[in-house]
Amino acid sequence: MVTIGDVARVAGVSRSTASYALSGKRAITPAVRAKVLEAVQELGYTPNAGARALATSHTKVIGLLARFLEDEFAPAMLQYILGVTNEARELGYDTLLVSEEDGVHALERLASSRMVDGFVLLNVAENDDRLGVLRQAAQPGALVGLPERTSGVDVFDLDFVGTGRLMVDHMHELGHRELILVSQPQHVVERGGAYVWRLANAALERAAQLGIDLHAYFGSSTQPSIGEDLNRFLDAHPDATGLLLNNEAAAAALPSVLAERGLHVPADVSVIGRYSDDFARTFSLPFSSIDSAADELGRAAVQQLVARIEGRIPEGARNVVHLISPEILDRGSTAAPRVGS
Amino acid sequence: MVTIGDVARVAGVSRSTASYALSGKRAITPAVRAKVLEAVQELGYTPNAGARALATSHTKVIGLLARFLEDEFAPAMLQYILGVTNEARELGYDTLLVSEEDGVHALERLASSRMVDGFVLLNVAENDDRLGVLRQAAQPGALVGLPERTSGVDVFDLDFVGTGRLMVDHMHELGHRELILVSQPQHVVERGGAYVWRLANAALERAAQLGIDLHAYFGSSTQPSIGEDLNRFLDAHPDATGLLLNNEAAAAALPSVLAERGLHVPADVSVIGRYSDDFARTFSLPFSSIDSAADELGRAAVQQLVARIEGRIPEGARNVVHLISPEILDRGSTAAPRVGS
DNA sequence: CTGAAAGCGCTTACAG
DNA sequence: CTGAAAGCGCTTACAG
Prior knowledge:
2 copies of one chain form a homodimer. By secondary structure, the first copy, chain A, is α/β, with parallel strands linked by helices.
């Protein structure tokens, strides 16, 4: 392979001069710099990443730790991943993607071998066992997902409390007084999917304040069971006029379920969901919804992380907890409830 | 950070002895080896990845080059990605995920900086501009997706020709004589999605052999346009009794379209798709389908790549082109056409 | 079976 | 403004 020694020889300068000419870290005579650049062109020189990392203690690589919960909707993770990889690249970093089950072990491995300059953790749980290791690590970390304790890390998430409230407020303003909430499977919650109960609790609390009857359920994440779940919930609450969905599979199954029951949206029932706009368009999820903001969250986490890596954030500065405000994307699936229903 | 020098000092041996004790590349007295391992434990030593890469010319990292086409169904990519990252980890490798637009540039960057030991390319096009660079690179490469020229690379893909034939054969055996094929958007084909026309051409050819009337269309990849497309196709061919879908959005939109037209599956119309089983269950895609085999393909590509990286494949050995045979997963959406229809 | 030393390819104080 | 040299933390022939 071609090294900086080759470049130096061809350019007729020392290796240090070649290095400085390329990094611009000290003044170089224009003519000398031109010769160096010419040699680089001629030889097709690219610095060896391992050697540079060894010399500088910076790898220009970010470790991205994904986390997949059984029964959770995995494909949604891709949008966070792409937000991270694209933003990282724009800032000059590559991304090492780790998907292994044992995230703690992976984190230890990458941190102690100095393979990365920092970490982005996806799908962070309320009491995420990866956080202990992360706080001990020499590299900084940014989270997508809000844990119980946020000290020592920067946190980015959708405001799920605000999301639960917004869903209920929206239905309340239209005049609805009895609602059904379908969350992700209970199993997801048990494994640490805090956003599920955070949204549900906020919705229940707001409903209680407003005098709304809110029936909160967990639903399955796959067909045909989610279809059966939906029918069961609707049977149990024949007077409910609105549905809140925090479950992609429920949003996909609902149109058929409603059609079979002869119900129309929004004339007979109003629906509001929480899922990605991309999925809505690809998978015919025809309901007004609050977007997950996956790309935005992934990018924000990387920006903050890189700022820390590059020392652009003062040592003493407090850690960031940034929650994105929910916004309803109107697809016309909510209206005032039928009079007398 | 703790280095092998620290380990050597604590264990009371030389650095080379410490290194050999850990690598097992030469015989070490059991007692000495025990002292070294103890020191490693005590100090919490992990080799520095950059230093090791510099010394050995092996990074133990695989470069994964994703490729996203406009209008193509991006989330499906995650299943390939996870197949790759999981298999890689099981074989002792980490994965650098690159999603940038300019795949040629990314490939050049990773190859020339020696950041990775080999490459996996996803969604390879008929004449993929990344292949030229890959063939010049010092590192081996494995593809998911079949290009026109396969020399110098190992190739893994679903047999899309076989898939097109199988769809037609299956319908033919049931007695269908007029079919509609809905492919991904034309735009995907133009950007190099060869699998789309490969399946379509094979289906057309087989249909011609069997005397079947096959109407092949491109469909949009999002709602509401794909719903309009489907209605248009069905209007144009009122006597068609079977639908072949190579388009996820079409599979998601079809149930509503058929319901509105008062058509039942499979009594009035038979349907067979090509998409991932995971999506089928999450997104209520209720049709018999041929699975994409994403996980299997990603894993196979990594296995072959690692075998090459580690020199377990003889220099002169021919490159592999491995096509997975399509299999129909029966969801009961096909039957004999209604008599007299 | 073990140690001292060279070398991987960079960057960056240190001298001039 | 430039060069010679040290050092980053490993691995591995070379000697013994």
